[in-house]
Batch of 2 targets.
Target 1
Amino acid sequence: MPIEAGEIKNGMTLIIEGNLYQVLEFQHVKPGKGAAILKTKLKNLRTGSITERNFNTNIRFDQAMIEKRQAQFSYSSGDTYYFMDMESYEMYEFSAEVIGYQSNFLKEGQEVSVKFFESEILSVDLPEKIELTVTETTGAVAGNTASTATKDATVETGLLVKVPLFIKEGDVIIVSTADGKYNGRA
């Protein structure tokens, strides 16, 4: 479905030169001389790379319809991660390369959102924050009462998280999936 440059909004998905891009930022710029331009910051949904591109404002783009389906992480085997569609019970496979850093937050039975373009599986979207159990950490250091002091803790997925000194093994903590930082106790 073609759209005008003036109709672009953040979050929209466009097909540009055969690639799928999500609009992260856009700005209409009218220089002192010449025609107005559209400055954009785009994320390639197939590779994950982010690029900045300028376009004439008279250009038309094809909008891509991205479908999201709820799925549940089932298991991983070697470099392959398996997810089950919550409605059709169909299994989706993702390579470790596609999952990347997100593997630090996946645990069996966790619900995620899977993005599709037509029949092509693009990516997995995790919730903003998840609960993880601390499996290993050191005890609090005697005499250190600084409220900003932290220590290392390993969670059930193997991720190393900086946590406050009062956190102990077995505690369930909330971790941000964007940056892997501690966000509180569950």
Note: The chain has one helix and 16 strands.
Target 2
Amino acid sequence: MRHEFLDRYSRIDSIIHRLPTILKISVSVGLILSIVLIPAYQMLFYGIIFTGLIVVGVLCRIPLSFFARRILLLEPFVVGIAVLLLFQPNGGKIFLSVVTKSTLCLFTMVLLSNTTPFGDLLNFLKRIHIPALLVTIFALMYRYIFVLIDEVEKMNRARMSRTFTRSRTHIWKSRAVLIGQLFVRSTERAERIYASMRSRGWR
């Protein structure tokens, strides 16, 4: 099970990692609000932010290629939503604005999640009196996403060991079946977890 999938570098030692959690979260939230609120034509502002994020990434001793891979992994969702804006008046400018702002916000969040352990983030949420149930849901989500990743890897290995064709059609059909099975297994696991938590006094 690859426990470093989401926050691989969150527990290394660097100047940024040693900063207080509240400071890192406050700066990240303030930066995201600034990115969202500053008009799109202020490209110098966005260039400064991007340069600053690169500098922080270097100070964190995290490979910049890691940030590039993470952002490219999430970028199709951003572009997929922003494409709809192309059909509006001045759609090209709006499209570039949304993609630029969303990419910088993603960069900020990837940087935060890889300089702050998830447990510290949960403790911060508790200190600012976020409802305990919501914090518990975040903790369970973080815990079981790795279980789902492990389940996908096992199912994929089982599929590959039984597949003796390179046909793209067959591969896509197999992936569709895998997704369906993963959904069923996830639902069954969630029901078992719910039942076990109820038996231990959770309401």
Note: The chain has two domains: 21-124, 131-199.
